[in-house]
Design brief:
Strand order of the largest sheet: 1-4-5-6-7-8-9
Number of domains: 1
Number of strands: 9
Mean pLDDT: 97
Largest sheet: 7 strands, parallel
Oligomer: single chain
Shape: globular
CATH topology: TIM Barrel
Bound molecules: coproporphyrinogen III
Strand content: 5-15%
CATH class: Alpha Beta
Low-confidence stretches: none
């Protein structure tokens, strides 16, 4: 099937479909026993990310089990700081760690050759996936947004509402802006290479956008995303781009209109009726089921699915969760979700 015929791509180009395409953030992961076995075999999370065979297998697992309409490349946002020469490692059961940058420290250089050489296994996984995926399944590439990457680079981990980066941006704005600029360039080039390798859409994760007050939101989320969109579009005009400035409430509208993304992914705190009115006239909406339903299931799950379908099915829409599926999720509830959406 051609890329433009796949349901995800049609929805991202603005088409209203009878049954929305569905995929879930973190659809590959610890709630699946086959993922835990694969991670064990690989000897750690980063080994999954940097070995194309393992990365392809991890991406394929949820597609085989559930038949989602889209797959998301198995990787992590922190491979970008890693490719820029920062140390990155994973503490099992806790999460990613980096050696923190000092406020005022010079941004790492973006040297395209070693950067893309470091990320070559990711590009190989993308190409391998286009060969392995069922013909109707769209392949999404992704990257972390500059702001969210900078928060992890400043703090070394996720903590304290990313206070380290918020402090740095005010105490030494020039060096912080330089770091954001460097990341903006690197992320744009990274996404272009993923699309070169076969990604059919890309998503930019700004998981910590909610930690930005309005002026900073414009400077460090909206403007860098806009630049990434322009740079990627110049190379790949037809590839849809999704943004996920998580937790920004009414500013999702500003983000959608000003960055030029094709669609926004919404967290679960946004009322779908508001999104239908305020957002869908300007682009595709993706979301936004409370991820806890994948742990608890039952009638409450079905009620919230119905409310979202009812509110958003009249415009361009992709069904997803409001954030990633958690390790406690039950595969049976994922199946119930798909049955409810697809009938
Ligand atoms: O299936 C998929 O969605 C694709 C893979 C994917 C992962 N991380 C795999 C992963 C994607 C798209 C991401 C993005 C990512 N990584 C984000 C943005 C989205 C979000 O969740 O807000 C962020 C902030 C990260 C950084 C990160 N990676 C954190 C904070 C953690 C720890 C929390 C956790 O869930 O463990 C990770 C680890 C991680 N990334 C795992 C997976 C499957 C778990 C690793 C393990 O197996 O132990």
């Amino acid at each position: 099937m051609k890329t433009e015929e796949k349901l995800l791509i049609r929805a991202l180009r603005g088409e209203t479909l009878d049954v929305p395409p569905v995929w879930l953030m973190r659809q590959a992961g610890r709630y699946l026993p086959e993922y835990r076995a694969l991670r064990e075999k690989a000897g750690g999370f980063l080994n999954l990310c940097y070995n194309p065979e393992f990365a392809v297998e991890a991406t394929m697992q949820p597609i085989r089990r559930f038949g989602f309409d889209a797959s998301i490349l198995f990787s992590d946002i922190l491979v970008v700081p890693h490719a820029l020469g920062r140390d990155v490692w994973f503490e099992t059961g806790e999460g990613p760690r980096l050696n923190p940058m000092e406020a005022g420290e010079a941004a790492p250089a973006f040297d395209p050759e070693p950067f893309h050489a470091h990320l070559a296994p990711v590009y190989a996984a993308v190409t391998g996936l286009r060969e392995s995926l069922p013909p109707e399944t769209a392949l999404i590439g992704f990257a972390g947004a500059p702001w969210t990457l900078a928060t992890y680079m400043a703090a070394g981990r996720g903590k304290d509402e990313q206070a380290a980066a918020r402090q740095w941006m005010f105490t030494d704005p020039d060096s912080f802006a330089a770091l954001i600029d460097r990341l903006t360039e690197a992320v744009a080039q990274y996404l272009i290479r993923q699309i070169d390798a076969g990604a059919e859409a890309v998503q930019i994760f700004d998981s910590w956008a909610s930690a930005l007050a309005p002026n900073a939101f414009d400077r460090y989320c909206v403007q860098p995303t806009k630049r990434i969109v322009e740079t990627v579009r110049a190379a790949h005009p037809d590839t849809p781009i999704l943004g996920f400035p998580r937790g920004v409430g009414s500013s999702y509208g500003t983000f959608l209109k000003e960055t030029g993304v094709n669609g926004v992914s919404l967290d679960q705190n946004v009322a779908p009726e508001w999104a239908a009115e305020a957002l869908q006239p300007h682009g595709t909406v993706q979301g936004n089921l409370e991820p806890m339903h994948m742990v608890t299931g039952g009638d409450a799950l079905l009620r919230d699915v119905d409310r979202i379908l009812e509110a958003l099915s009249g415009g361009p829409f992709v069904f997803n969760l409001g954030h990633g599926i958690t390790p406690q999720a039950d595969a049976a509830h994922v199946e119930a979700l798909l049955r409810r959406i697809r009938g």
